[in-house]
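During data preparation, we tokenized the protein backbone, and the record follows.
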Amino acid sequence: MAHEIIALIAQYGLLVVFVNVLVEQAGVPVPAVPTLIVAGALSAGGRLPLVAVLLAALLACLISDLVWYCAGRRFGAGVMRTICRISLSPDSCVKQSELRFQRWRGRVLLIAKFVPGLSTVAPPLVGAMGLRPGAFVLLDGAGSLLWAGAAVGLGYAFAPQIDAVLAMLEQAGTLAMELLLGLLALYIAAKWWQRRRLLVALRMARISVDELNDAIAAGRNPVVVDVRSEASRLLDTRVIPGALLADLDGVQLALADVPPERELVIYCSCPNEVSAAKAAKLLMSLGYRRVRPLLGGLDAWDAAGYAVERLSPTDTPAAVAMRQGA
């Protein structure tokens, strides 16, 4: 099997590169870097045109990323929640992207392909943030070319060594490919298990939106805390009236003046209330005992018809920078 696959890359190299990169950038966990490295080695031996390999990878990246970008512009925060629901790392799939976005803005696209988990999330994120199409194509194209060029260049520079590895794979035959496929399957299984363990660890009593509304109406005045990041609030400006705004890392400081005996309700807009549950666990470890995540989060509150307020992000530095294509 190894011989056939290597021969396939040699014979249909440009198509294999295009399809592999397109599928990976769409979010399927099928690594494209090994294919690009092999293509680079084949280019060094004159078996594939170097420029055409780079152009095939660039075109695949732009097609896939433009689809995600348009989805982000059209559906906004809904696309980010969908990505997080299917991600193998639901606690960090969007958070890491938001952190880098807050620092880099649109320029995050220059490094996105080099950061695991960021490549698929970055295009819809900047699309939802309002990055202009021209700036997106320029930045995403540059970042894609840097990423593909690094992998292809690595293969080109170390062609003799890679040729030796390929020769070993050919000699090993089917066993080597089965081993590689087995390692890929183990990686996916490990990430799935990590996701499952996280969700199990964060299981705790939730408060429903009806219970929260009843508590507010009865005058119990629970302290409601929005633990979404700044980037999340730019994507989705809804907030529950009177809620304290604090991201996950700053929730302890935001509640410094709140007595431990106060009732706390933590909400976010992520699947399984992951961020809210993590914040609640942290606060309980600090002595807060009456703290619960809001079941269904902000979406459930709004869907139930309860009042929401809107933040005004249009004049914030982040929004201005985004409109300018920074």
